[in-house]
What does this fold into?
Amino acid sequence: MAGAELLVDVSHLVKTFGPLRAVDDLSFQVRRGEIVGLLGPNGAGKSTIMKVLTCYLVADGGTANICGVSIDGDPVQVRRHIGYLPENAPLYSEMRVKECLAFVARMRGLPKAKARERIDWAVGACGLEPKFMAQIGTLSRGFRQRVGLAQAVLHDPDLLILDEPTSGLDPIQIIEIRKLIMAIGTTKTVFFSTHIMQEVEAVCNRAIIVNRGKLAADGAPSELKASLGKEQKIVARLKGPTSLELETLVGAFDHVGAVSVQALPSDGWMECSVRMSPKAGEGSAADTAERLYRLCKEKDWAVQELRVEALTLEDAFLKATGHEKLQ
It folds into this structure.
């Protein structure tokens, strides 16, 4: 994408709320044809970044250009280039889907013939044919999200900005919305926030990680994972010890960097994640897994699963945001 047209150019952006710096000297670029996932812990500044780029909030410092237009100099022109879906889709529940899209087309200033063409396209692209005459208030959250996406792409924007588009959806709805984002991403640039690592790996060709308003990492999901090198972790599902006992005993093993224990819904079972030290040599994970198995036998702990696996995008996220201890 290095030679593709530059659509978003953010330079040293700052946004404050009283003493809180929600966005802190942030810089990045997005080019045409990219599907970019914006990741970060709660309170990292993701929604604020999107609200500044869509001109809903005014930055306190730095600059940002959308399609070459400054968000400070001409916010109305910036909005013409953007389709935006906030976390809660701004829809009128008493309207029918048809009426809502016609209303948005008028607000966007589309001529009647162009409006009919774009509505037909958006309805087809977003799979809204069966609900076209339905009242929005009767729709499931999944279909309301589809309507929200349809209004966002209706005016054929260069850039689509989506704030947690799959939040609150069930697994089937999540899959449907992901497929829809990927389909739209074949012709549009998509920039969306999410908490779901699998979503980024499935949909995005790039991930931007922010933490406390600052840029923490930026790259393709495969590159972020590769930055961890050949580090591995051990995942064990077992029953018998207390969390403290397990963390203490396993944490004392050679070459162990971090240990995390999480209780599972099933009675008494827990999942233990063991991150190896970056300085651990090749084969250390396998040796540590064997030592953990011997410990379980000695303590008469039940073992349901024990495996060694490569580090994931979630591990790269935890490292980038300073949460080295696995969760």
